[in-house]
Specification:
By secondary structure, the protein is an alpha+beta fold. The chain has six helices and 16 strands. The chain has two domains: 48-130 and 262-427, no CATH class; 136-191 and 205-255, no CATH class. Strands 1, 2, 3, 4, 5, 6, 7, 8, 9, 10 and 11 form an eleven-stranded antiparallel beta sheet that branches. It has a five-stranded antiparallel beta sheet with strand order 13-12-14-16-15.
């Protein structure tokens, strides 16, 4: 064989073993670098997703809370023991007769993990009309024993109340979904069907009002088609009652109006035992969910102070802290009705060891000293956490609230906090 042929075959020779090993090692380094970069990016995206989720929970909770704070004392009383236009006085069996009731450390169910994080979340109870802004004119009040059936007006013009085919006024038309015979869905949206125990306010032509307890679930329709509400017996105007003659109603009550009143509570609690919320607690044994608390809104029974079954609303998941502070008008009460310049005093958030002032007391517990009607704004501080921990050390930034929330065993979830203020417009100008 010629030397040229041997040289040609030598030029066609493949990689040596050493070259293959070098190329493989270099490729492995490239793959590892790509993997590490990808893992870091994935962790960053997961972390941002957690923060985004906490931020979304925070936003949703704040929107709902602000909406109800704005309606505190709306179409009801700010202080049932001192309101000159509320007569007769509410029965002593009514637990809440004020627009705002502050409960320092009232979210007791959040205590186990809150203690570990140095938190003592509050709760707040609000009374107002949270379902409607309408006053419903009364056509007739028919009493028997200790209860009364209130017939709401639905006729207009020359038609008498209850006439078949009579045109309904705007409020009643909305109430009845007018045109659908026997439809009570809109009635129940205002005078909710659940349960016995909600309140209504009856206001007479002189401007005085009284709170009445509904004794039959929600509202219904009489045989004539009129909407009816069944309540505890109201006080007639021309009775022998010793109270002043502005109280109650006169005649058949057809110059009075009626509106719904609800009592709602915001607190941090777990709904894991509520069958309606099993979807929100899929892994209660997992450390991240073991101490899962949420911002919950419930309606409150005015007689027992218990949350009413079936009214719970999960407002914001993974809530860890809820605090309130107030601005209060401390000017001298006016006895003549003359204008008095307000003297606003802002109060701080009440932390562990501090004592809230008397104006936040329950009216029933402190009838002479509690002045919740003088609250002019409510400041709130709500904190939510991410579901899963992603840090092994906490942070003490020296600011309000937490930056990280301990879930035990050196694991911390990140926290987002918002602070805001809501003016209580329904209590502006109260001088009593």
């Amino acid at each position: 064989m010629s030397a040229r042929s041997n040289l040609s075959r030598t030029g066609e020779r493949g990689f040596t073993l050493l070259e293959l090993l070098v190329a493989a090692v270099a490729g492995l380094f490239v793959v590892m670098a790509a993997f590490l970069l990808s893992r870091g990016t994935t962790r960053l995206l997961t972390s941002e997703s957690r923060i985004g989720s906490a931020q979304q929970n925070l936003r949703m909770g704040v929107d709902r809370l602000r909406s109800d704070l704005e309606r505190a004392s709306f179409m009801t009383t700010a202080n049932g023991s001192k309101d000159p236009d509320l007569c007769p006085a509410p029965p002593t069996t009514f637990k809440y007769i004020q627009g705002i009731t502050y409960k320092y450390g009232g979210s007791a169910l959040a205590t186990p993990q809150s203690v570990a994080n140095g938190l003592n979340p509050d709760s707040i109870v609000l009374m107002g009309n949270f379902t409607s802004s309408d006053l419903y004119p009364i056509a007739d009040i028919n009493c028997s024993g200790t209860t009364c059936t209130i017939y709401l007006q639905w006729g207009s013009g020359t038609a008498t109340a209850g006439d078949a085919g009579a045109a309904a006024p705007a409020s009643a038309r909305r109430l009845l979904n007018f045109g659908e015979a026997g439809n009570t869905s809109a009635i129940q949206a205002v005078f909710n069907a659940l349960p016995v125990g909600r309140l209504v306010r009856l206001t007479n032509v002189k401007g005085s009002s009284q709170l009445l307890l509904m004794t039959v679930n929600g509202a219904g329709l009489a045989a004539s088609g009129q909407p009816i509400i069944t309540v505890t017996a109201p006080l007639p105007l021309n009775s022998a009652n010793a109270q002043n003659k502005r109280c109650g109603y006169d005649g058949n009550g057809n110059q009075a109006t009626l509106n719904a009143v609800q009592i709602v509570r915001y607190q941090l609690k777990s709904l894991s035992t509520d069958p309606n919320f099993v979807w929100a607690y899929p892994e209660t044994g997992v450390p991240a969910d073991q101490y899962k608390y949420d911002l919950v809104r419930t309606e409150v029974d005015p007689l027992t102070d218990n949350d009413i079954d079936g009214t719970a609303e999960l407002v914001s998941e993974y809530a860890v802290d809820l605090k309130f502070a107030f601005s209060v008008d401390q000017s001298v009460a006016s006895t003549t009705g003359a204008w008095v310049e307000p003297s606003l005093t802002p109060f701080k958030f009440y932390e562990s060891g501090s004592t809230p002032p008397a104006f936040t007391d329950e009216v029933r517990a402190n009838p002479s000293g509690a002045t919740p009607q003088r609250i002019r704004s409510v400041r709130y501080r709500l904190s939510t956490r991410s579901r899963d921990p992603d840090r092994t050390v906490g942070l003490d930034e020296g600011g309000p609230g937490l930056a990280r929330y301990s879930l035990g065993a050196n694991s911390f979830a990140r926290v987002r906090t918002t602070i805001g203020e809501v003016a209580i417009l329904n209590q502006q100008g109260i001088r009593w």
